[in-house]
Design a protein that fits this description.
Elements: H1 3-25, H2 31-49, H3 52-61, H4 66-119
């Protein structure tokens, strides 16, 4: 890997890491969800600084070139992240349904109280 590419990857990884941390500090991203991105950013900084890690990992997995190992790992991590996001969305949908039910019950109670108040 050329030094220019390595430096570019390192600077890009650091920029992404700083971007995520700034958004966490501004409360734009929940820290619970940002941990994944912070860990990912730190991993990218380490891999950018020490590219021999990918060469070793690729040979350990049995993949010919490190770039293919990177693509395989990225696809796996994106698959896991997508599953996690859909899991969170499903939980939020259940919460929304429960909140809709609670709102309907409260609305009915308010209407009943208003009718009683108007009858008096």
């Amino acid at each position: 890997m050329s030094k220019v590419l390595q430096l570019s990857l390192l600077l890009g990884s650091i920029a992404v890491l700083i971007f995520v941390i700034k958004n966490v500090l501004k409360n734009k991203i929940n820290i619970r969800y940002a941990v994944i991105w912070i860990i990912w950013g730190i991993s990218m900084v380490i891999i950018s600084a020490f590219p021999t890690i990918m060469y070793s990992l690729a040979s350990f997995i049995g993949i010919e070139t490190p770039s293919n190992a990177v693509f395989l790992i990225m696809m796996f991590l994106l698959y896991c992240l997508t599953f996690y996001i859909y899991f969170i969305i499903s939980r939020h949908n259940e919460d929304i349904i429960n909140l809709d039910y609670e709102i309907a019950v409260l609305k009915k109670k308010v209407e009943e109280l208003e009718k009683e108040r108007n009858n008096d």
